[in-house]
Amino acid sequence: MRIFGRARHRPSTDWRLATDRAFTLIGDGRYEDAGALLTRAADLEPWLSESWFNLALLHKFRHDWEQARAAGLRAVALLDRAAGAPDWWNVGIAATALQDWPLARRAWQAYGLRVPSTPGDPGATAEPTGMELGSAAVRLSPEGEAEVVWGRRLDPARIEVQSIPLPSSGRRWGEVVLHDGVPHGERTVSAGGAPSAYPVFDEIELWAPSPVPTWVVLLEAATEADRDALERLAADAGFAAEDWSSSVRLLCRSCSESRMPTDEGDGSARQDPHDHSVPGHPGPLGHVTPGDLWIPERECGLAAPAGLVRGLLDGWVADSPDTREWRDLEEVC
User: How far apart are the first and last CA of the chain?
Assistant: First the structure.
């Protein structure tokens, strides 16, 4: 097989040494030095799709999406297989970051995914919708104080956050995050039958911010039904409440990146645990109320506008003043 007039062959020793050294540097966070080596490798073997795939990968790590798209397109131009290549997935991520929707559609289709057509848009220039990818989990701030939250997949590279993240993550309910393609861990949910597995993807960056602030409030809820009433009230208003006292668990990073069970539910339910990663090994549950013991004082996260949040809480108390109270409301993110 000949490409650009040159017979395809195994990459040279210099190419392999430069590439291996570059990925060692990437692991150390030395992206500039790695970029120089990968550029040299591409100069040595420009007919290898791997040369451009590696550069596209580096630019993805750097969030340099224009360069990631350019290198990714050179990689896919040299592919010798029709579908399923990770090169196309990286092109799809870069195109999504840049909102280059025609290229994103082309990338997902070339990878082998079905992308529904957009009515009234023969040029398929709108963002891909209707792919029905379901629920998944996403690890926010994977290089820092990581937290795994539940979300709704909008397409292969974006998740809309449906949990209320802890303030340490810097993320809000309703935000859309760009995520990587390879899952790191799974969450299994049992709903009366065989467990369903949901992948955990790593966040790359914030794609669309949410205007809805996060609040923390201390509740006095006499029963679980009282707590549930606030969550329903917030949901009915188009926002969210989450009892962090029972929905957040502490996991070490090793456990977080493994296959972990959650409470019974459907993967997208707000009551399913989301995970806050910490050093060491605190055990699978760090924050969840053990057994059947109900503690009336609850730490609750609320996602609601400033002009609505107090009215929600006051309305919740007014429905059952003998069993409900709130105090110490604070905006935290």
Answer: 57
